[in-house]
Specification:
single chain, mainly beta, four-stranded antiparallel beta sheet
Length: 103
């Protein structure tokens, strides 16, 4: 059994027991989060597709950790002007452990 959920602008394919890293979510470590934007549920070959979401479906997850992602380096260079810029960015992420899928 798996489901496709939307967290912010990103979609994730999840099953029970999976661990995913999503954009920063509100909550403390150990809190249970309900993800209500379920786009698709597959239960052993029986697929339910939402328009746009599946009514009454939800995914329960536990917050494992809050951490920073890998650093992204952005470099900009313009020739003949001697302009060079370097910018770094680290996204705030939340690690979720999927505990249950309710259809």
């Amino acid at each position: 059994m798996f489901a496709v959920v939307r967290i912010g602008p990103t979609q994730y394919k999840v099953s029970v027991g999976d661990s995913i890293e999503a954009a920063n979510m509100v909550g403390e470590v150990g809190d249970i989060v309900t993800l209500s934007e379920v786009l698709l549920i597959d239960d052993n070959g029986k697929t339910t597709l939402g328009t746009p979401t599946v009514k009454g479906a939800s995914v329960k997850a536990t917050i494992d950790a809050h951490h920073k992602g890998e650093k992204i380096h952005v470099r900009r260079f313009k020739s003949k002007v001697r302009e060079r810029r370097h910018i770094g960015f680290r996204a705030q992420l939340t690690r979720l452990q999927i505990t249950a899928i309710h259809a």
